Amino acid sequence: MSHFIAAIDQGTTSTRCIIFDKDLKAIASAQEEFTQHFPNSGWVEHDPSDLVNTVKSTFAQAIKEAGLMPSDIASIGITNQRETLVLWDRITGEPLYNAIVWQDRRTADFCQSLKDQGLEAMITEKTGLRADPYFSGTKLHWLLKNVDGAKERAANGELYTGTVDTWLIWKLTGGKHHVTDASNASRTMLYNIHEGQWDDEILTTFEIPKSLLPKVKDSSADFGHCAESELGAAIHIGGVAGDQHAAMVGQACFEPGMMKSTYGTGCFAMVNTGDKAVTSKNNLLTTIAYQLDGKTVYALEGSIFIAGAAVQWLRDGIGVIEEASETEAMAKAADPKEDVYLVPAFVGLGAPYWNPNVRGAMFGITRNTGPNEFSRAALESVAYQTLDLIDAMRADSGELQDTELVLRVDGGMTASNWTMQFLADMLDCEVDRPTVLETTALGVAYLAGYQSGLYPEPAQFAKEWALDRSFKSLIDEQLRAKKYDGWKRAVESTISYG
Ligand SMILES: Nc1ncnc2c1ncn2[C@@H]1O[C@H](COP(=O)(O)OP(=O)(O)O)[C@@H](O)[C@H]1O
Ligand SMILES: O=P(O)(O)OC[C@H](O)CO
């Protein structure tokens, strides 16, 4: 039997493939960026074939780097950017339209109409989500309404839809398996997270035929075999989870109260609430963390749309840096007397504000403000936004109020020591960075390897989590309160500007 697992991480801006050995050590990896399409203000799309092609090419590159053959892979795990949705012809496999990406705001008006009709409470009660364009359901409603013939063809049973995992599995298995896992389903706004099934009332409200939707499975399950023509061998797919959920697993946050925050394009903080689906009173989401051995584990989630993307904006938008890593030295060099705040509401604000229409702003600019202060403000905005979430989580979750808070962090941005220290300063808690920063890939590799019997029980896996560095607050309460107060005022002003 072969002893290698391939983790495919299909993210918002790039696709990665990482090969893990039997000891869950990464032995090879490949990564490719793909084109982002912005056809209108606030619209974000991906070409669905780019998603499939980058999966195939990064898989081939990673296998080559590892000196393996495709047939040496025991199982594949797929983790993905969540909520992004594809609609395709179930016979030809051709998409009817580009994938509509989670960041896309085109359904803001439809969401407002759901609120105006008083439907948001029902949606939140069943799905744990809010009437926000972020989630897949309103994107599907838009496609059925706006793509020529889509509604009729959907009613005739000619079409399939799904989040990115479902699209990739459909293509990789040669159109044989139309499936997803419970964590991805829980992000669609169409899935009843308490009953564990697609919700008829919501489907009727959104005019979505159930025949479009995939079968929902555990996160560690049999998702079918790839067609030989796709990856070079009939490899089994044994693990699937939304990227933030895979990171929960990779960070071994298996106990209630354990919390992680992932800093990539956006930032997503999740706290495990065990078998209880806690309803947030502070504008957080209730979601399925993962589903293992038939048991659903829930989480509270705070979603921030722009984290590392603020650094990308410094690079690609205003050109003050060439590499993300330059921001560290620039933040250190920034003038401490310059109180500059960036509210990076480039695509609206997520939790806990949930305002899709507001746009970004900067405050406190003087003639002395330059690239260093811009960079510091971008990095600081990530910590302030996290504090907004953690405060909401503390208020929502009994476990968090009673325990000393520890936040496990991962994602590309955690490479920045300055940002992690500022995060600890603002949160006033321990911020733990593990040795493995590719926790998302690790988590889904674990799910796939657990399914095929290669990897141990969760409790044993959790013992292998290893700390790289722990950050603790170095500032006093007065300074923390002053800085956070400035942030709160900056956000209020941004929102009131509209
Ligand atoms: N040293 C760094 N300092 C600050 N930001 C960084 C650094 N390295 C990477 N980033 C940011 O992290 C993000 C990439 O993280 P990653 O986890 O790969 O994101 P994703 O999975 O969303 O594509 C980018 O937005 C980049 O700007
Ligand atoms: O692709 P990432 O890592 O930015 O993650 C995107 C999230 O899953 C969106 O909810």
Automatic annotation (TrEMBL):
Residue positions binding ADP: T12, R16, T265, G308, G412
Name one process (GO BP) from the record.
glycerol catabolic process
In this chain, glycerol is annotated as bound at R82, E83, Y134, D243, Q244
The pathway where this protein functions is: Polyol metabolism; glycerol degradation via glycerol kinase pathway; sn-glycerol 3-phosphate from glycerol: step 1/1
Which residues are involved in binding sn-glycerol 3-phosphate? T12, R82, E83, Y134, D243
CDD domains in alphabetical order: FGGY_EcGK_like
**Residue ranges of the Carbohydrate kinase FGGY N-terminal domain?**
5-250
The record, for PROSITE patterns, names:
FGGY_KINASES_1, FGGY_KINASES_2
Q: Where is the Carbohydrate kinase FGGY C-terminal domain?
A: 260-451
Q: Which Enzyme Commission number(s) are on file for it?
A: 2.7.1.30
Query: Which molecular function terms from Gene Ontology are attached?
Result: ATP binding; glycerol kinase activity
A GO CC annotation recorded here is: cytosol
UniProt entry tagged with the keyword Kinase: yes
Q: Which reaction does it catalyse?
A: glycerol + ATP = sn-glycerol 3-phosphate + ADP + H(+)
Give the matching InterPro entries.
Answer: ATPase_NBD, Carb_kinase_FGGY, Carb_kinase_FGGY_CS, FGGY_C, FGGY_N, Glycerol_kin
User: Quick one: which residues bind ATP?
Assistant: T12, T13, S14, T265, G308, Q312, G412
Inhibition and activation profile:
Inhibited by fructose 1,6-bisphosphate (FBP).
Q: Which UniProt keywords apply?
A: ATP-binding, Glycerol metabolism, Kinase, Nucleotide-binding, Transferase
Which PANTHER family does this one have? GLYCEROL KINASE, SUGAR KINASE
* Family recorded in the similarity comment: Belongs to the FGGY kinase family.
HAMAP family (UniProt xref): Glycerol_kin (MF_00186)
The protein's job, in short, is: Key enzyme in the regulation of glycerol uptake and metabolism. Catalyzes the phosphorylation of glycerol to yield sn-glycerol 3-phosphate.
Protein name, UniProt field: Glycerol kinase
From the broadest rank down, the organism's phylogenetic lineage runs: Bacteria, Pseudomonadati, Pseudomonadota, Gammaproteobacteria, Thiotrichales
The encoding gene is glpK
